[in-house]
């Protein structure tokens, strides 16, 4: 009796998914719960495990196909678990050797990682995976390539070239010197298409305006330097900047409810909870997992949650529920070196805070010019419901909380 492999039930907010890549081919043995295929929605990548051990008898749908809940993907012929090792042992040694690189150091290769491995002709089995169950991401492969480039062999000087001919060689025509000028056309991933849709929607439906301020992070730096070792020892998480900014935003959102509100038709919805999204960059694009009730979380809870979100997002295992909702967003372009930018609101939210690079700059304090670690802050907001006065005062509140962190502890 054969067993059908079907598309799992997709959440209500997701109508369909795209079949990204099969990890097995017809005729292969599959173990129970082994990942057979990746499905990409506009928010996350879903893994479809084998419902039983057996032979993958038939693959019904190929890569790139759009699928819906319950659709049949493949057929499995159940067999004894021991049949696979015997069949593998009978196979030619070369086939086993060829299969080992695809394991990616004992784990699985993400679709993006597979492309990089193929383009650079490297042994995927030598690439350590940082994702769940040893899953190898594109970042792992890029890091491995960088390590190879930095190795002594890669840095070895080239052998001396033979003596040049006495007669000068005429330069190549400009067109030949440029080489091939090719193009590559690839479809947008579902996530990238969804990001594009949301960004255009925000620009076309909201009256977006950005206000700026700057913050002196001397006090935050001193606190982190003083307590970072004790904090990590006690809580098992590093004391970063995001917990300070999240707490400061929670304080400011309580003071200025319109920044935490959203527009629905002709109504303004004032949210009495503070679900703050934190933008995370992945190989597939930018996603925004949400810290629920951020105002009730302590610094350790925030740091642990953000670290877990980032790890699961880059491993492709974050859930749709963790990306849904949110009343306000924080994005940190400073980690990539951005000094100043105007972030776009994550609709239907009405505001987003942009963090930027920390840079030592001369500032005037008590009549004296001193060097301080400064950061520009940007608040992009929907001017339909948030007045400039509220936006500016929101930024000033965030600035005060960060320059005097005791305010957050005392609730001032």
Q: Give me the CATH superfamily of the largest domain.
A: Chloramphenicol acetyltransferase-like domain
Mean pLDDT comes to 81
Number of strands: 19
What can be said about the biggest beta sheet? 7 strands, mixed
Shape: globular
Query: Strand percentage, roughly?
Result: 15-25%
* Residue share in helix: 25-40%
Distance between the termini: 68 Å
> What low-confidence regions span 5 or more consecutive residues with pLDDT below 50?
85-106, 152-158
User: Based on helices, strands and strand pairing, what is the structural class?
Assistant: alpha+beta
The CATH architecture of the largest domain: 2-Layer Sandwich
In CATH terms, what is the fold-level topology of the largest domain?
Answer: Chloramphenicol Acetyltransferase
Based on the structure, what is the oligomeric state of the protein chains?
Answer: single chain
Number of helices: 13
Give the tally of structural domains: 3
CATH class membership of the largest domain = Alpha Beta
Taking all Cα atoms into account, the compactness measure Rg is 27 Å
List its traits.
412 residues; OB fold (Dihydrolipoamide Acetyltransferase, E2P); Dihydrolipoamide Transferase; Chloramphenicol Acetyltransferase; 7-stranded mixed sheet; 4-stranded antiparallel sheet; 33% helix
